UniProtKB/TrEMBL annotation:
Its cofactor is pyridoxal 5'-phosphate. Gene3D superfamilies: Aspartate Aminotransferase, domain 1, Type I PLP-dependent aspartate aminotransferase-like (Major domain). Keywords: Aminotransferase, Pyridoxal phosphate, Transferase. Belongs to the class-III pyridoxal-phosphate-dependent aminotransferase family. GO terms for molecular function: identical protein binding; pyridoxal phosphate binding; transaminase activity. This is Aspartate aminotransferase family protein. Pfam families: Aminotran_3. PANTHER family: ACETYLORNITHINE AMINOTRANSFERASE, MITOCHONDRIAL, AMINOTRANSFERASE CLASS III.
Length: 428
């Protein structure tokens, strides 16, 4: 049955769909951290729809509210509803650092890219500038503004010209750069300063610094201490907003509500999406300091800014995370997983990193060069043995694990048995 549906999809769906041929999964039903495919095979899900299903597939606490809400009221644009107001209040309460209690929320639309577009507009609106500082290896989305600050050349090249006045600094990646963490951070911050502050060759009219607190698509690149706080300092020195893209890393994934919480940094603007819709409903938000709320009615628009079911689901999911202490669970289980992965005896494993249940394993060959085939083989072996794992990285050589935060210890162990075995088999 899976083959039949895959063939049908290939025939009629867009060529733009990037289907991983080596993981021919056709899901039929999913609960918690497991997926059953159309042929009845059951998989442990270490992917969670790109880190969307933090509280698990079809979480019953969320689904009860979803069914009730869907029968009552689905779409209101910007008219008030209790789910909308409750979610705004909740997001303002859990916002990172000093944003808590001093923030505003704008729902920009269903996708992460929408939240990024809103953040770009807000930064420009408040500074009157146009220049955007971003980072190599970043991913911020598929719309034109978001692509402009995405550091992946072949992804955006066919659509040039995108936004003008965007410059990229290196993201600190000590393993890949072969530098000490301190050196990697210092080199990156120096370039950011040069872009913003150099009188010649620098950027004219900067509007903001856009950064992922952990690069997700870029390979679960977890910056050393000093990077985000250094960016905070540069932003302050130059009166610029620091925009932190928490779309993949936020909402509990790393064992704190926000990845920036690990670094004690308060952003001016935060983007969130993915897990925000609770159990996979499309919903995004841009949270920002109330001082930046200078725009007026209609300055940012969108039809789907009030999806009541998604908002209700999102709120319930945040409640669920709190009530079940899933942040602490994610921290502990993530640390256990990383330590087990570090113990695997496999020369191809160059680096194991991440925070909470955001885990990356970087594969290299004997010369230390990226080994994307190793990741593919690990994915294949895992799939054949009932575990779904994903990849990331500029070179596709990073295995990325983003299991639901409700993953149990027993599920983690079973999944890692398969995964570690797969890694041991890899021969580069
Ligand atoms: N920012 C980050 C950090 C992301 O990981 C993604 C999606 N992978 C996006 C933005 C874009 O989100 P969406 O695909 O929902 O537009």
């Amino acid at each position: 049955k899976a083959r039949e549906l895959l063939d049908r999809q290939k025939e009629i769906d867009s060529n733009a769909v990037a289907y991983p041929d080596h993981i021919p999964l056709v899901p039929d039903e999913a609960k918690g951290a497991t997926i059953r495919d159309v042929d009845g095979n059951v998989f442990l899900d270490f992917f969670a729809g790109i880190g969307v299903l933090n509280v698990g597939h079809a979480n019953p606490y969320v689904m009860d509210a979803v069914h009730e809400q869907a029968d009552k009221l689905v779409h209101t644009v910007d008219f008030p509803s209790e789910p909308r107001l409750d979610l705004i209040e909740k997001l303002e309460a859990i916002a990172p650092g000093g944003l808590a209690g001093n923030s505003k929320v704008v729902f920009g639309g269903p996708t992460g890219s929408d939240a990024i577009e809103a953040a770009i507009k807000l930064a420009k609106y408040n500074t009157g500038g146009s220049g955007l500082v971003a980072f190599r290896g970043s991913y911020h989305g598929a719309t034109s503004g978001a692509m402009s600050i995405t550091g992946k050349k072949d992804f955006k090249e066919p659509y040039a010209p995108l936004l003008p006045n965007v410059q990229f600094a290196p993201y600190p990646h000590p393993f890949e750069q072969g530098k000490t963490p301190e050196r990697a951070v210092a080199d990156s911050l120096r370039e950011v300063r040069a872009i913003i502050e150099e009188p010649y060759g620098g950027m004219t009219n900067p509007a903001g610094i856009f950064v992922e607190p952990i690069q997700g698509e870029g390979g679960v690149v977890t910056p050393p201490e000093g990077f985000l706080s250094g960016l905070r300092e540069i932003a302050d020195d130059n009166d610029l907003p620091l925009v932190v893209d928490e779309i993949q890393a936020g909402l509990g994934r790393t064992g704190e509500w926000w990845a920036s919480d690990h670094y004690d940094v308060t952003p001016d603007i935060v983007t969130t999406a993915k897990a925000l819709g609770g159990v996979g409903f499309p919903l995004s938000a841009t949270i920002y300091h109330e001082d930046l709320d200078t725009w007026g009615p209609g300055d940012h628009a969108g039809t789907y800014r009030g999806h009541v079911v998604a908002m209700r689901a999102g709120l319930r999911a945040l409640e669920y995370v709190e009530e079940h202490d899933l942040l602490a669970h994610a921290r502990r289980l993530g640390d256990d997983m990383r330590s087990r992965l570090r113990d695997v005896d496999a020369p191809a494993v160059g680096d194991v990193r991440g925070k909470g249940l955001f885990v990356g394993v970087e594969f290299v060959d004997g010369d230390g060069d990226p080994a994307p085939d190793a990741v593919k083989r690990v994915q294949e072996h895992c799939y054949e043995n009932g575990v779904l794992v994903w990849k990331a990285g500029q070179h596709g050589n990073v295995l990325r694990l983003l299991p639901p935060l409700v993953l149990t210890d027993a599920q983690a162990e079973a999944g890692l048995d398969v995964l570690c075995d797969a890694i041991e088999r890899v021969d580069v």
